[in-house]
Automatic annotation (TrEMBL):
One of its GO terms (molecular function) is iron-sulfur cluster binding. Residues 629-755 form the Aconitase A/isopropylmalate dehydratase small subunit swivel domain. Residues 66-508 form the Aconitase/3-isopropylmalate dehydratase large subunit alpha/beta/alpha domain. InterPro entries: Acnase/IPM_dHydase_lsu_aba_1/3, Acoase/IPM_deHydtase_lsu_aba, Aconitase/3IPM_dehydase_swvl, Aconitase/IRP2, Aconitase_4Fe-4S_dom, AconitaseA/IPMdHydase_ssu_swvl. It holds the Pfam family Aconitase. This is Uncharacterized protein. Keywords: Iron, Iron-sulfur, Metal-binding. Belongs to the aconitase/IPM isomerase family. Its cofactor is [4Fe-4S] cluster. Gene3D superfamilies: 6.10.190.10, Aconitase, domain 3 (3.30.499.10), Aconitase, domain 4 (3.20.19.10). It comes from Poseidonibacter parvus.
Length: 826
């Protein structure tokens, strides 16, 4: 620790912490940092050597996007899909140390890892093999490692990080002293980002970054811009937070928040429950922001006490002492946005090929036809759907139920010709409504609880629509109807808040101005619309007893989970013909002090803008791909191939996917497209995978050469580590996506850039041999490559993209994880 350490007493216990107020006294400019940057400042100072503290202070004071900062997570949250590939790689490291007799001591994760397993598949028989392979492996690593916790398949898992797992503050013992610091976490999906609604900074990162985090290292990223959104006012009549999100979405898209942090603050926050803040945090991620953060306030503390059944006074005291509690003024944001909730208008979206967004008040003006059938007519509602499988906010559901309650009090109901359904995300939502005694009001309106695939309308109505070519209506809060066979029959599909779904259904058609005209006789929307105060009163009734019941024995699992048998051996016994979980050993710590690559062959010559999906495909595995042929050889039918993402934990499948995109243009074999290259010795054209096997037999290294902007697109660890498994030692490009270049270094592949030349100027054809022989490895160095073609020998200079001393060390050791584990060799 350093000179900024301070302490305080609480309940006769002494707690130490890195005091931000002391830092602000030393550097007053930092006092006005946004909340998220203060959290990042605290952890960067706390984890920095004393002689480098001034450098950190200057970076945060200048807030330049050209600077990089560390993100140091103290917890990792993963879903099942992303956890298994990561943990297979981690477990293989211990296999390496054990088999090589390097160390008998088990290497443990340095941070806590929570794996939240998806709900058990409904079609158990169809997914039995996938479940068995994944679940068996997950149970094995949970038993083997002390810092890995598995939350088994459970109906309650979708919000478990928000409602149960998060602790808000972390404790550490250093020299027999207890230190407090903010809980900060990372992961790969919404489990790690919805936590920003609770005042915990959580970011999504790639699996390669997570590998470093497991060993208590850090992720670096460019110093982020922070946009402040000041929330004012409260919701007006007819408005829900779904409408607020839709309005805000337009603002954020126009602002281009890619890679930026968004912070919400202001007096209006007191009217937004934690459950509704989740909607805001999710929207920021959807719009490609880094984090949608809500500073901790009284709502947060009440929520923690309600869901955990604890006294959160220590949490509140710590964040207040650090100026991290909502209410601090004079924050300087890079950009500011004002959002006055009282000025927003309800929105509906017409779901069609090109979606059309309009204000509710203008809906009736959009109607153009008024034909009549025997039972129904144009603009009449025939399907009313509340779909909570995509809408996780309990307040939206409570708001809809309160409208149903008031309608029931007035004695008004929904026409029997309207099919009325509700789909729950899980039984938890249903249990919430039962505990609050609200479900009965939906049932009084004849809403039927169904599975998402059971949406229907009556046969007589369907025949009437077809016979008279009617433009009838579905009102819903989700886009599910677009994927339903009824979408061809019901031409007007309006998406709106659950509350408005019920309000329109009470009227039975959309041919009226709902904010001005009556729903039934002299009853108007204003008569049945609940205030936010009413909604929040019901949210407050969700006390600890409900959450205690939901999360009792949460780590135990059901009988299916308990019945899964797993090995207790030191090394995991992978099934020979496993299709979902299998490994190829690639971990190997090196001690390179020179670069000696001799007679490397060119695997591919690629054009500009090659993205990560070109390198490692996503989506369904096509029937004639190398992966498909391999899966067929294991006895799988084409309908069992699944997606590449579902096979990420099986290296034998994934290695065959690398550079196998059906549209990939490899200049070596063009005009033939796809994952092919040429063996110039035999003249045979073959798959990249088969060629790599041939080269491995005689230990020939491989090179990939490309144009500008190599490695664009989504984070995909297989697009990098797959090249390593193929035997690629060097990637040369005219320019790289910076993130992809960093990932190449992390797996021990040398990235080089052309200085003046390119594929065309060098007239490369793919039959060249490339060699490097140098005794120095330095940052930002120039590297000479000898290129031999027939009897012609050229030496071309390239720019090394090892850009700092740490990247040099990564490369010397064979990769980032290998570097982090170098001490285990001693």
């Amino acid at each position: 620790m350093n000179k900024f350490v301070n302490s305080f007493e609480f309940n006769s216990n002494s707690y130490n912490y890195c005091d931000l107020k002391k830092i602000f006294e030393a550097s007053p400019k930092l006092r006005n940092l946004p909340y998220t940057l203060k959290i990042l400042l605290e952890q960067n100072i706390r984890n920095t050597d004393e002689n480098k503290i001034d450098d950190v202070l200057n970076v945060f004071a200048n807030r330049s996007s050209l600077s990089q900062i560390k993100f140091i997570s103290n917890r990792i949250v993963l879903n099942e899909l992303n956890s298994v590939p990561l943990l297979v790689d981690f477990d293989s490291i211990n296999d390496y140390f054990n088999i090589k007799n390097i160390s008998s001591k088990l290497i443990q994760p340095k941070v806590m890892i929570d794996v939240i397993v998806d709900n058990l598949d409904e079609d158990i028989d169809k997914n039995e093999k996938k479940n068995k392979e994944r679940y068996t492996f997950l149970k094995y690593v949970a038993n083997k490692y002390k810092n890995i916790s598995i939350i088994p398949p459970n109906i309650n898992n979708s919000q478990i990080n928000l409602e149960y797992l998060s602790t808000m503050i972390s404790l550490s013992s250093i020299n027999n002293k207890v230190f407090l610091f903010p809980e900060v976490l990372c992961g790969t999906d919404e489990h790690s980002t919805i936590i920003n609604s609770l005042g915990v900074l959580g970011l999504n990162v790639g699996r390669l970054q997570l590998q470093s985090t497991i060993f208590d290292s850090y992720v670096t990223f460019d110093f982020p811009n922070v946009i402040g959104i000041e929330i004012k006012g409260s919701l007006s009549q007819g408005l829900s937070f779904k409408d607020v999100i839709q309005n805000l979405k337009t603002i954020l898209i126009n602002k281009n928040i890619n890679g930026k942090i968004v912070e919400f603050y202001g007096d209006g926050l007191k009217n937004i429950s934690i459950e509704d803040r989740v909607l805001f945090s999710n929207l920021v991620i959807e719009c490609k922001g880094l984090s949608g953060y809500f500073p901790i306030d009284d709502n947060t503390i009440s929520y923690i006490e309600k869901t955990r059944g604890v006294d959160a006074s220590l949490i509140k005291m710590y964040y207040e002492k650090q100026d991290l509690y909502q209410g601090f003024s004079n924050i300087k944001y890079d950009e500011s946005i004002n959002l006055d909730l009282s000025t927003l208008k309800p929105i509906t979206i017409l779901l069609k090929t090109i979606e059309e967004e309009i204000f509710i008040k203008d809906l009736s003006a959009k109607l153009k036809t008024f034909k009549k059938g025997k039972f129904v007519q144009d603009n009449q509602i025939v399907l009313s759907l509340i779909d909570m499988s995509t809408e996780k906010s309990i307040s939206l559901l409570i708001q809809a139920c309160l409208i149903a309650k008031k309608a029931s009090d007035f004695g008004i109901f929904i026409n029997k010709d309207i099919s009325k359904f509700i789909v729950f995300d899980s039984l938890v939502q249903k249990q919430y409504l039962e505990k609050l005694d609200l479900l009965k009001y939906l049932e009084k309106l004849n809403f039927k609880i169904i599975d998402k695939d059971e949406i229907t309308i009556s046969e007589s109505i369907a025949l009437d629509i077809e016979k008279f070519n009617l433009n009838v209506v579905c009102v819903s809060n989700s886009k599910r109807i677009k994927d339903n066979k009824l979408s061809n029959l019901i031409k007007l599909n309006w998406m709106m808040s659950p509350a408005l779904v019920i309000a329109y259904s009470l009227k039975g058609n959309t041919n009226f101005e709902i904010t001005k005209e009556s729903l039934v006789q002299d009853i108007y929307l204003s008569d049945i619309w609940p205030s936010m105060h009413e909604v929040n009163e019901y949210i407050e009734k969700l006390d600890f007893s409900i959450y205690k019941e939901l999360y009792t024995d949460v780590f135990t699992g059901d009988e299916k989970w308990k019945d899964i048998k797993t090995s207790e051996s030191l090394n995991y016994d992978y099934e020979k013909n496993a299709t979902y979980v299998n490994k190829i050993d690639s971990f190997n710590i090196k001690n390179k002090e020179s670069i000696n690559i001799s007679n490397a062959k060119i695997l591919a010559l690629l054009d500009d803008n090659i993205n990560t999906e070109d390198l490692s495909p996503l989506g369904n595995i096509s029937s004639y791909s190398p992966c498909a042929l391999y899966l067929k050889s294991l006895g799988l039918r084409p309908d069992e191939f699944n997606t590449y993402e579902n096979r990420h934990a099986n290296a034998y499948v994934m290695i065959r996917s690398i550079l196998s995109n059906l549209k990939l243009k490899n200049r070596i074999v063009y005009p033939k497209v796809g994952g092919y290259t040429k063996d110039f010795i035999s003249g045979e054209i073959m798959t990249m995978y088969d060629f790599s096997l041939k080269m491995k037999e005689n230990q020939t290294p491989l090179v990939v050469i490309a144009g500008n902007r190599f490695g664009l697109g989504k984070i995909n660890d297989w697009s990098v580590k797959g090249l390593k498994l193929l035997g690629v030692k060097i990637v040369i490009a005219k320019s790289f996506s910076n993130r992809y270049k960093n990932d190449l270094v992390k797996v021990g592949i040398l990235p080089l850039e052309f200085i003046e030349d390119d594929i065309d100027s060098l007239k490369l054809e793919g039959n060249e041999l490339l060699s490097i022989d140098t005794n120095r490895i330095k940052a930002n160095d120039k590297i000479d490559i000898k290129i031999v073609k027939n009897d012609e020998v050229r030496v071309i200079t390239f720019q090394s993209k090892l850009e700092n001393s740490l990247e040099v060390e990564y490369y010397k050791k064979g990769g980032a994880v290998e570097y982090l584990l170098k001490d285990n060799l001693k």
